[in-house]
Specification:
It contains 23 helices and 4 strands. Helix 2 packs antiparallel against helix 6, helix 2 runs parallel beside helix 7 and helix 6 runs antiparallel to helix 7. By secondary structure, it is mainly alpha-helical.
């Protein structure tokens, strides 16, 4: 009897087996990705301050993300060993747990075996998730979604203490990343769409959800720090429209983004092939499903999807932010699978989709690895050319109109972390302080950069100047070299 029960369990949850099988491969390839861009400046970077500081637990800059700060503290205990390996472990494990929770969510929503398993695999391998899975500092996005899904499962599955548990996990989701707060509205709306609550309970619980959001807002206001809103977070009509386009594209169109959008790697033939390989599955679940698309379940799920990504649509939306809504995309996929007549043909199309998605994922990971290697190479070059430790370094970047794409293909100077990558290569021994400035590419940009560098060294405020030109450190002038060169010029004039 037990063998039969275990066999049925495995048969009903075959997506979990696929996830467990693919996880070591995912970890192996992702672990080669090195920090770039925001990874060098986010709260998850290695930090060396004492654990009990107000910045670690309260609002810091523009964010209230204590878990990010704690990750940075752990990484700071041994940066060379833990950064970014510790971060990758957290992200991959979190993505796996999110995938298994999506499977549980779809089961609770009473979808059929095939529908929930296909939708779960879709969530795990979709290229829309790769900008999050390949990032070093994206634990906040992954665990925010994880806590959000748990909050819903508790909301519909627990009677005693339901509202308290719901509020606690919504708060946890928000403390990982602010968009997690949206689960205060998503939970009752999704529950209503799938007939867990009636309309009266929906109104009551939406008010309770707004109350949870108000408590979070009050906690923000009461914290002893000025809240600074950067210009890029101020919503505008054109910004929202552009963000909506990005959101629709990254969430619902499966294509190799590098081949399609990144000019140096652009290959429209390969982009078209990856798009066409995904199309039959999407078409097969949409055809004949007109009533499903306008049904209560689908409409409520679509609203939940928009609510989940709303904070990003109103402020900044990049490819990694699609992750916030992918659980709802999985629910929509299961809806379409569950109500249509899908046999072996649809499963064959899904297999084609899966092979295509894994191919795209591998390419995106490969490009992320290359970006990290560029940063490391620049760091090694900067250290070699400097020759000796420098306490304070000024970095001058000659900036091209260089195309970039999310975290997959970053600008070389961003991969270099504006000098932070070199700091990491010395195990944070030097330089102690790095400042940077950027000048636009022009015929005289190198002369301007050298002039700025000379002026900085003349003032005796910095020990060294690094001039960054593309992927190379073209000059690393130290105070001693500068003084020797100036002395020689003076002697020559005399």
């Amino acid at each position: 009897m037990e063998k039969v029960s275990n066999h049925r369990l495995l048969k009903n949850n075959w997506s979990a087996i696929i996830i467990v099988f693919l996880t070591p491969l995912l970890w192996y390839f992702v672990s080669a990705i090195l920090p770039t861009h925001d990874d060098w400046t986010s709260l998850t970077r290695p930090t060396f301050a004492p654990f009990f500081t107000k910045e670690r637990f309260f609002l810091y800059g523009n964010y209230w993300r204590p878990f990010d700060s704690m990750i940075g503290y752990v990484a700071g205990r041994n940066p060379q060993a833990l950064f970014p390996a510790f971060h990758h472990i957290l992200v991959v494990v979190g993505h796996v747990l999110c995938s298994l929770l999506v499977l549980r969510l779809l089961s609770v929503l009473r979808f059929g075996v095939t529908s929930r398993n296909v939708a779960t695999v879709f969530f795990f391998i979709t290229p829309a998730a790769m900008a999050t899975v390949t990032a070093v500092d994206s634990q906040n996005q992954v665990y925010s979604l994880l806590c959000g899904i748990v909050s819903f499962l508790l909301y519909v599955g627990v009677k005693k203490g339901k509202y308290l548990l719901w509020a606690v996990f919504v708060f946890l989701a928000a403390l990982f990343k602010e968009n997690g707060l949206m689960w205060a509205l998503i939970c009752p709306l999704l529950a209503y769409g799938f007939d867990f609550i009636d309309r009266k309970s929906l109104r009551k619980d939406l008010l309770a959800g707004i109350g949870i959001m108000a408590m979070y807002a009050l906690a923000i206001v009461l914290q002893p720090k000025d809240i600074v809103i950067q210009a890029e977070y101020i919503p505008g009509v054109m910004k929202i429209i552009k963000n909506m386009v990005k959101f629709m594209f990254t969430s619902f169109v499966t294509v190799d983004y590098v081949y399609l959008l990144h000019q140096p790697n652009r290959n429209m033939w390969m982009a078209a092939i990856t798009f066409l390989m995904a199309l039959p599955f999407i078409y097969s679940i949409l055809i004949g499903n007109g009533k499903t698309l306008i049904g209560k379940k689908m409409i409520c799920t679509m609203l939940c999807l928009l609510i989940a990504v709303a904070p990003h649509l109103l402020t900044v939306f990049s490819m990694m932010h699609a992750y916030a809504g992918l659980a709802m995309v999985a629910v929509m996929t299961a809806c379409l699978m569950d109500t249509g007549r899908h046999g072996k043909e649809t499963m064959l199309f899904f297999l084609l989709f899966a092979v295509n998605a894994v191919f795209i994922d591998a390419h995106l990971i490969s490009e992320s690895v290359k970006s990290g290697q560029v940063g490391k190479s620049m760091a090694v070059e900067a250290i070699r050319k400097t020759g000796e430790p420098a306490r304070r370094v000024y970095v001058i970047i000659i900036e091209d109109d260089y195309p970039k794409l999310s975290s997959f293909c970053v600008v070389p100077s961003d991969a270099f972390g504006w000098g932070r990558a070199a700091q990491y290569e010395t195990n944070n021994q030097w330089p102690e302080e790095i400042r940077d400035t950027t000048i636009l590419r022009a015929p005289d940009s190198m002369q301007r950069a050298k002039k700025i560098g000379s002026e900085i060294l003349e003032k005796d405020s910095f020990d060294c100047v690094w001039i960054v030109d593309g992927k190379h450190i073209v000059e690393a002038s130290g105070k001693r070299q500068f003084l020797e060169a100036r002395s020689k010029r003076q002697e020559a004039r005399e």
